[in-house]
């Protein structure tokens, strides 16, 4: 990530903060700090268990030239896909938590990891997000692959 891309990404994320200037300053003072930012303004986040999220991310990365922003917790237990605002209002999926209007998300500075979060795909500052229909297909494909791996082989099959 170039300095100009990082700067644009910081500006894009900070714009949703109640105090954008304070958000930018907090990241300037400590680039490893994660901040709480409100979802539902420029983006929602779909939080998927890591065991499904990583395979879905792999599928998504094969299907699109550049996925929108994707976060992962350092332990790999959750993956967060940034999607258009209001997606969380309509999303239904077992095990998927939705962060939309009225919720807050822990976000590290682009180009850095924090104590608990890291970017798999940082924002580029342009506002590019993950397409919910492409993400849904990627989640279904990943779930099907995982289910097939768990199926016991039957004799003669």
Summarize the structure.
This protein is α+β, with helices and mostly antiparallel strands and 157 residues long.
Strand order of the largest sheet: 5-2-4-3-7
User: How much helix, percentage-wise, in residues?
Assistant: 25-40%
Structural class label: alpha+beta
Count every beta strand, where a strand is a DSSP E run of 2 or more residues.
7
How many structural domains does the protein architecture include? Answer: 1
SS element count, helices = 5
Main beta-sheet strand count, sense and barrel state: 5 strands, antiparallel
- Report the end-to-end length measured between terminal Cα atoms: 48 Å
- Low-pLDDT runs of 5+ residues are none
Please provide the ordered H/E string of secondary-structure elements: HHEEHEEHEEEH
| Spatial extent as radius of gyration | 17 Å
Mean pLDDT, all residues = 92
> How much of the residues is beta strand, in percent?
15-25%
Shape: elongated
Overview of the molecule:
The chain is α+β, with helices and mostly antiparallel strands. The protein has one domain. 38% of the residues lie in helices and 22% in strands. It is built from five helices and seven strands. The strands form two sheets. Strands 5-2-4-3-7 form a five-stranded antiparallel β-sheet. Strands 1-6 form a two-stranded antiparallel ribbon. A hairpin with a 4-residue loop joins strand 3 and strand 4 (78-83). The termini are far apart. This is DNA primase/polymerase bifunctional N-terminal domain-containing protein. It comes from Streptomyces thermolilacinus SPC6.
């Amino acid at each position: 990530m170039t300095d100009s891309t990082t700067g644009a990404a910081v500006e894009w994320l900070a714009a949703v903060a109640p105090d954008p200037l304070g958000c930018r300053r907090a990241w300037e003072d400590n680039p490893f700090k994660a901040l709480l930012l409100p979802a539902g303004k420029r983006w929602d986040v779909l939080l998927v268990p890591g065991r499904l999220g990583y395979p879905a991310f792999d599928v998504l990365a094969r299907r699109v030239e550049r996925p929108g922003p994707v976060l992962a917790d350092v332990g790999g237990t959750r993956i967060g896909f940034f999607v258009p605002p209001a997606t969380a209002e309509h999303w239904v999926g077992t095990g998927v938590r939705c962060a939309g209007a009225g919720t807050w998300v822990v976000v590290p500075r682009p180009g850095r990891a924090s104590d608990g979060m890291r970017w798999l795909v940082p924002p580029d500052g342009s506002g590019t997000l993950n397409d919910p229909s492409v993400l849904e297909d990627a989640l279904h494909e990943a779930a099907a692959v995982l289910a097939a791996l768990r199926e016991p082989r039957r004799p003669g099959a």
